[in-house]
Design goal:
This protein is an alpha/beta fold and 503 residues long. The chain folds into two domains: 15-255, Vaccinia Virus protein VP39 (Rossmann fold); 267-500, Alpha-Beta Complex (Spore Coat Polysaccharide Biosynthesis Protein SpsA, Chain A). Helix content is 37%, strand content 18%. It has helices at 15-21, 31-46, 49-55, 57-70, 86-90, 103-112, 148-155, 175-183, 198-207, 228-234, 280-286, 307-317, 333-343, 363-371, 394-411, 427-435, 448-457, 481-500, and strands spanning 76-80, 95-100, 117-120, 133-139, 159-170, 210-218, 248-255, 267-273, 294-300, 322-327, 348-351, 377-381, 423-426, 462-466. The strands form two sheets. It has a seven-stranded mixed beta sheet with strand order 3-2-1-4-5-7-6, with helices on both faces. A seven-stranded mixed beta sheet has the order 10-9-8-11-13-12-14, with helices on both faces. Strand 8, helix 11 (280-286) and strand 9 form a beta-alpha-beta unit. It starts with 14 loop residues before the first helix and ends with a helix.
Length: 503
């Protein structure tokens, strides 16, 4: 329900009575009338907002904690509808800008957070002279907007291709609860305009050429109750069925089609190899060319055969290719990948397993998916096309499907094949992922979950490219089904605590 022009109250009118009277006014006819009405409303609210924030400190503390989960410190952050500026400040931005329709709110926020910048501006009139941000936050705002689609379209002017748009708003199931809370004086009455669903927001973002990367529900108990609220919001809120009655809906979205590289990006293909001497020459012979320059990096992992010598031979004898060889100091594929990525110089980083079960000729498909903006983390999927009869044992297939389902739930994006060795991402995104690796710890010796968890934490769009999986023709697998499966299960437990059960 929308509301018309709101006159400021006279001194003899009680604040709550005036706020409740807002709901009885006819809807505004024009955007200008709407903006003037809301400016009056929030200018008045600015005088008492700190009292209400103190009364509902538990809710605001939870929202700030969730914002810090989605937004890493040190980012460039724009908050639209910034109010007191407290939420913006909680994200610890390197550059923080808040805009608000209320001049009085802007002055209050500037006083509370002098290290941040605040401007008097309506969301529907957003214009920041070309400045862009890493994160754009709309907190409890879409319910108050006159034209949500228009605001989403204007957001593109403050986005670069990697910007993430973080939106949260009230779940429609809470409409009677919040209305009752206002009548009882537990919540300040606000004339909400729109009760929108996930589908509504997804459609409006789509109309504005934006795509949802992640969607969540949070906050089952918004009031602060010792022990109970922490347990309810961290665990019960994420249980099936209970999720649907959480207070707040959250989405993370990205803009589409803002730009593509003007120069073909260069590529680094990292190939971990242990006891793969018979495959090294085949990899070099079959490696395709790319639109940009490429390098092949072999990382040898303490082989018992002649793998290291073979890597060095082909690097020395192959003309026209940039091939480098390193020996890992640690153990495991994950350690080898991290060494290779640290030495890589390409704009795009690729992993190619040395068993040649994924054809090197398929790598250009991954390259195009990344460069064309289809995704930001490209994962191979071996489970679409028919595979060689001996390529994957039955128990391995069952385990892969189980972990793919589990990871899809934990990271909030569909994954069909969690353990395909071929993964591709921008080097800049990997460097960002590596800086935040301590968040998950160093449990993963394989590197697959380490990269998937990191991509999910960065809210990268994960896209899978189907490949045809071949059985190896040289050597034997380095994977132990049961001991490695137990380790993968432990890693999923870690991800559940770090990515799923958050509050």
């Amino acid at each position: 329900m929308a509301h018309a022009k709101i006159e400021a109250p006279s001194p003899e009118i009680h604040q709550a009575d005036w706020a409740r009277s807002v709901r009885r006014v006819r809807p505004p006819v024009t955007l200008e009338e709407y903006l003037q009405s809301w400016e009056t409303f929030f200018d008045h609210y600015a005088a008492i907002v700190l009292q209400w924030r103190e009364r509902n400190a538990g809710y605001h503390s939870t929202i700030a904690s969730l914002a810090r989960f989605y937004i890493p410190p040190g980012a460039r952050v724009l908050e639209i509808g910034s109010g007191t500026g407290d939420l913006l400040a909680s994200t610890r931005p390197a550059r923080g800008l808040g805009i608000d329709i209320s001049g009085d709110m802007v002055r209050l926020a500037a006083t509370r957070h002098p290290h941040l910048e605040f401007r008097h501006m309506a969301a529907e009139q957003l214009d920041l002279d070309g400045e862009t941000f890493d994160y754009v936050v709309l907190s409890d705002l879409v319910g108050l907007l006159y034209d949500i689609r228009l605001v989403f379209e204007r957001l593109r002017s403050v986005c670069h291709p990697q910007t993430r748009i973080v939106i949260h708003w009230y779940n429609r199931a809470w409409e009677p609860v919040l209305s009752l809370a206002e009548k009882l004086g537990a919540k300040y009455p606000q004339p909400l305009l729109n009760w929108t669903t996930f589908e509504d927001i997804a459609n409006l973002l789509y109309l504005a050429d934006c795509e949802i990367v992640r969607r969540d529900r949070h906050t089952l108990l918004p009031t602060r109750v010792p022990l109970a609220s922490a347990f309810a919001n961290r665990f019960l809120a994420h249980v099936p069925l209970m999720r649907h009655v959480c207070l707040s809906n959250w989405v993370v979205a990205r803009p589409l089609g803002l730009s593509r590289p003007s120069v073909p990006p260069s590529v680094s293909i990292v190939c971990p190899c242990r006891n793969e001497a018979g495959n090294i020459q085949r990899i070099v012979d079959r490696l395709p060319s790319f639109a940009g320059a490429s390098e092949l990096i072999f990382v040898e992992g303490h082989s018992s055969d002649d793998t290291l010598a073979e890597c060095r031979r082909v690097a020395a004898e192959t003309a026209g290719r940039n091939i480098r060889v390193f020996v890992q100091q640690g153990r495991g594929k994950g350690d080898a990948v991290r060494l290779g990525f640290a030495q890589a110089t390409g704009d795009i980083l690729m992993i190619l397993d040395a068993d040649v079960s994924v054809a090197p000729e398929d790598l250009p498909m991954f390259y195009r998916a990344l460069v064309e903006g289809k995704g930001e983390f490209i994962n191979g999927s071996r489970l679409v096309y028919a595979m060689d009869a001996e390529a994957m044992r039955f128990l391995n297939l069952l385990g892969n499907r189980f972990f793919a389902f589990l990871l899809s739930v934990l990271i909030g994006q569909p994954i069909k094949d969690s353990l395909c060795g071929t993964k591709v991402l921008w080097r800049t995104k990997y460097e960002e992922l590596a800086r935040g690796r301590a968040y998950f710890g160093g449990l993963d010796p394989f590197g697959d979950f380490d990269l998937l968890f990191g991509a999910a934490k960065l809210n990268l769009r994960i896209v899978e490219v189907p490949i045809r999986y071949r059985q190896r023709t040289y050597g034997s697998t380095n994977i132990s089904r049961f001991s490695d499966g137990w380790l993968l299960l432990r890693m999923c437990g870690l991800a559940a605590r770090k990515l799923f059960f958050v509050s």
